[in-house]
Design brief:
Strand 1 and strand 2 form a beta hairpin. This protein is 11% helix and 50% strand. It has one domain: 4-Layer Sandwich (Double-stranded beta-helix). The strands form 2 sheets. Strands 3, 5, 6, 8, 9, 10, 11, 12, 13, 14, 15 and 16 form a 12-stranded antiparallel beta sheet that branches. Strands 1-2-7-4 form a 4-stranded antiparallel beta sheet, with no helix packed on it. With 218 residues, the protein is mainly beta. It is globular.
């Protein structure tokens, strides 16, 4: 399979070229255009109950689209929010994505849902995270550009800016300062990462743009 990402960092989209016999998985509703003769069928990743958990608590679609072409063809996918599309090769390792960041993957990639902790229930970003494993190519997306931060010790990040991170990093959801600071600073809860690894951050947040637009929607 060949792939090409265009439009980054503002309006990223992904084009894949499939050889005969290859298949590709993409988030439901993300297909923009494809070659004539491309076959599409719906697939539950990991079985019904795992897919249902991903839908209900992880913010992902219950089904993904499985694309193939009998003689070889191409398909282009666009995420539902403006921003960057990134690729990561999975080789039996594990990677964590926040809810809604998964975009597409080759057939050997696995998805499962993990509970992010009790404090995550109140973070405004979802209490569950998606753990990616297996072997193959993973594609994920952000709102805004993606910034990679190398952690060697510790890093504190607003929960809304986190896209994903290496699973070897430890983390916990906490507050900045005391209750007064949390209530009146506008920062809310943060993720405190410790260890060594990479965190992928987005430069904008959906919650931030929603709050900015609220006065204009009345």
């Amino acid at each position: 399979m060949e792939y090409q990402v265009e439009g980054n960092p503002d309006y990223g989209q992904l084009t894949v070229r499939l050889s005969p016999g290859e298949s590709f998985l993409a988030e439901s509703g993300s297909m923009a255009y494809m070659s004539e003769g491309t076959r599409l069928k719906s697939k539950l990743v990991g079985g019904f109950f795992k897919a249902l958990i991903r839908k209900v608590v992880g913010g992902e679609s219950l089904f993904v689209g499985e694309y193939s072409h009998p003689v070889g063809g191409a398909a282009t996918f666009s995420p539902n929010r403006p921003g960057t599309v990134r690729q990561r090769t999975m080789s039996g390792d594990s990677f964590i994505l926040t809810a809604g960041s998964f975009m597409a993957a080759t057939d050997g990639v696995t998805l499962s849902t993990r509970f992010g902790g009790l404090k995550a229930l109140f973070s405004g970003e979802g209490a569950f995270i998606v753990e990616v494993g297996g072997d193959g190519e993973l594609f994920f997306n952000s709102y805004g550009a993606i910034i990679e931060k190398q952690v060697d010790g510790g890093l504190v990040v607003d929960t809304g800016h986190v896209v994903g991170w290496d699973s070897g990093l430890d983390y916990n959801v906490t507050t900045i300062g005391g209750m007064k600071s949390t209530l009146f600073s506008g920062e809310g809860l943060v993720l405190n990462f410790t260890g060594t690894g990479t965190v992928y951050l987005q430069t904008r947040t959906l919650g931030g743009i929603a709050r900015w637009m609220t006065p204009f929607s009345r």
